[in-house]
Amino acid sequence: MKKGATEQRFVYLIPFSILFWLFSLPSWAQFTVSGTVSEPDGSPLPGAAITIEGTYKGTFTNANGTFLLSNVKAGPVAIRVSLIGYQPQTKEIDLTQNATLAVSLQRTAVAVDEVVVSATRANQKSAIAYTDVTRRDLNKLNLGQDIPQLLNFTPSIVTTSDAGAGVGYTGIRIRGSDATRVNVTLNGIPYNDAESQGTYFVDMPDFASSVSTIQIQRGVGTSTNGAGAFGASINIQTNKLEEKPYAETNLSGGSFGTRKINVLAGTGLLNNHFVVDARLSKIYSDGYVDRAFSDLRSFYVSGGYYSKKSFIRLNVFSGQEQTYQAWNGVPEDILKINRRYNSFTYDNQTDNYQQDNYQLISSHELSKNWRANLSFFYTKGKGYYEEYRPNDNFSDYGLSNVVIGDSTIKQTDIIRRLWLDNDFYGTVFSFDYNSFGKLTGNIGGGWNQYKGSHYGEIIWERIAGNTNIRDRYYQDNATKRDFNLYAKAFYQFNSKLNGFVDAQVRQVYYSFLGFNSQLQNVQQNATLTFFNPKAGLTYTVNDRSTVYASVGVGHREPNRNDYTQSTPESRPKAEELIDYEAGYKIQTTDLAFTVNAYYMDYKNQLVLSGQINDVGAYNRVNIPASYRAGVELEAGIRLAKQLRWNVNATFSRNRVKNFTEYLDNYDTGEQDSHQYTQTDISFSPNVIAGSQLLFTPAKGFELGLLSKYVGKQYLDNTSNENRKLNSYFTNDIRIIYTLKPKFAQEIAFTLLFNNVLNELYESNGYTYAYVSEGKVVADNAYYPQAGRNFLAGVRVRF
């Protein structure tokens, strides 16, 4: 049978299975539950979430604070009513006829942390595609692997790991967009590296253990702070008030010497005002790839003061990593005989970095309708990677050749360190308005500045000339400032129709050492101003069904290398995206189903073409037109009382309309060009699917089959079958057993068997194509992922 045929049939069955369940649900005695949600003084509370526990069914109160749930099964039901800033309530009723509820919610005794991120998060009226991941979801997989791996089963996501075991340097792509195009915020504070625009989760090991919720917005999303959300955004919230004291420890270990230990503790709310939370973590892994070890340490400390209307929190967290480099991947010819090959052999070929983060977060209720949120932050990063370089030219380091007698020596072996020493600081703010009627809105923004010092040191030479240890052979200082303002408004036209508008102005200033027209290194600068409008409509068909549509504009500036490795004449333009989204949602007792269609229209997207620019660099270039079009399906199905299926699938077409490839021709010393039309965008699979089949045969016992399918991906934009990643289909088995003894809140045992069918696959790679002896040759390298392996852990919470 052709490789992958079985897996592909499985993937294509997913949407048809969902539709089958959608239209063949059984029917029996059903009733309606209606009611009102208000404050104690009778004021209506619109936007309150009404859910029936243990089911997918739910709705929200309208502008008048009323709600209606139809087709509710007869029998005992528990109805939960919740709203940010209010104490949730659960009403238990035995449904034998239509029921009416009147629920009065009390404000929380103290302000809640969730209000800080509400301005940049999507909600049920945002008309965009998003997924919320709770701490409970993260705990099920959090055995030492990085955040990208923990998000692997959410829609449209592909993850990768340099070391192959999910620890250390990991990567994430959403709808084919890499991490440099994904905006990441921590408590509303920007986290992306200012220059590369990427996110390095290795710098915050075990951060997931301090996370309350994560929201992933796909596409342009809502206006946020920091880097341009050009493919998606990830909004991470750490703070959540724990009113009672707690202590917790997690121990885990498994294949490839992977092990993790952490300790968490919190005081609870002291004297009704003060709280302190802390975490200390240590993670180590040898990695699947030879010598690709990761030695990671981190801590998190947070102290806060809370009152009824306000709170202020200080978060201090730090990560320290040492990883042996596996950046080169495995050459294609070696991959066939040794998947764990690592070209580096020098014993200290390591990356070493420490990042310290400080966040001062505050929120204050100005009136019943207005709340102000203000945060300040400072991030300090410093580190280097060390590498052994055989036979480097002295001239490459600005050094004179060494003359010994009659001999002139031009090359020697060198060990060098490339340093980055940076400071990133700024503020974010928002003013949130809620009329508790038809209109809600936010006005916010932020300012930040990055100062980075890049320099290189020589720490050893086999043949030393007139140099000293740690001589710097280059120094490059950069400054980047980012300022944005946004305004958002949601308006309820009537009981069924809601609209939103969202507009952002963002300005970026970047000063850097780059080439001028005479190919001299001089300090240069660039200033860019972007306007990013968005608008959408949400229509509530009934208490089960909702349709929505939106359009949004996003911009993204070139990154550091695009600027420093070009002249003002060859410097690329900023990228532009118009994102169209439309979707349909349905929620019943046994089914939650969403279909979202998108069309992402790119102008001047930056890609590698192989062309050498005017400074001799293989820089990225703008392509005039490209697009991503797809359909995302997401469902949660209760197949039986003890059996649930969470499944998602993305079917997409990702194309460059016209593309020119440039190849070095070793026969002529020139470059050849080749024209293409309608080729695939690199690293953009046409099919991505994730599945979690969960069986709970007894209380506290869960068995899970976790499956992931990723279609083939091309390493460049030529759709060349000789330069691709093959499709892959992995299956994991997860076993969780939870006890609640008298001496502890919870003891949870987790056993995770990864890739149980031992699929041999590669999740990332790169290619270099050229012409030699009249033929096109492609040197491909790949990042193989681990075969069959396991992780086991225990979590004890007091």
What keywords describe this structure?
5 helices; five-stranded mixed β-sheet; mainly beta; single chain; Immunoglobulin-like; Maltoporin, Chain A; 798 residues
Write a brief caption for the model:
The chain is mainly beta and 798 residues long. The protein contains five helices and 44 strands. The protein has two domains: 1-107, Immunoglobulin-like; 246-797, Maltoporin, Chain A (Beta Barrel), CATH 2.40.170.20.
Describe the protein in words.
This protein has 798 residues and is mainly β. The protein has two domains: 1-107, Carboxypeptidase-like, regulatory domain (Immunoglobulin-like, Sandwich), CATH 2.60.40.1120; 246-797, Beta Barrel (Maltoporin, Chain A). It has five helices and 44 strands. It has a 22-stranded antiparallel barrel. Strand 31 and strand 32 (591-608) form a beta hairpin. It is globular, with a radius of gyration of 27 Å. The two termini are 53 Å apart. Mean pLDDT is 91; it is low at 23-27.
How are the SSEs ordered, and which strands pair?
Elements: H1 5-23, E1 30-38, E2 49-52, E3 58-60, E4 66-73, E5 75-82, E6 89-95, E7 99-104, E8 129-134, H2 135-139, H3 147-150, E9 157-161, E10 170-174, E11 182-186, E12 189-190, E13 213-218, E14 232-237, E15 246-254, E16 259-266, E17 274-285, E18 294-306, E19 310-324, E20 330-331, H4 332-335, E21 350-365, E22 370-393, E23 402-404, E24 407-409, E25 411-434, E26 439-461, E27 471-492, E28 497-515, E29 521-540, E30 545-556, H5 560-564, E31 575-587, E32 591-608, E33 620-640, E34 643-665, E35 671-680, E36 687-698, E37 701-710, E38 713-714, E39 724-725, E40 728-739, E41 746-754, E42 762-772, E43 775-784, E44 789-797
Parallel strand pairs: 1-7, 11-14, 34-42
Antiparallel strand pairs: 1-4, 2-3, 2-5, 5-6, 8-13, 9-10, 11-12, 13-14, 15-16, 15-44, 16-17, 17-18, 18-19, 19-21, 20-43, 21-22, 22-25, 23-24, 25-26, 26-27, 27-28, 28-29, 29-30, 30-31, 31-32, 32-33, 33-34, 34-35, 34-36, 36-37, 37-40, 38-39, 40-41, 41-44, 42-43
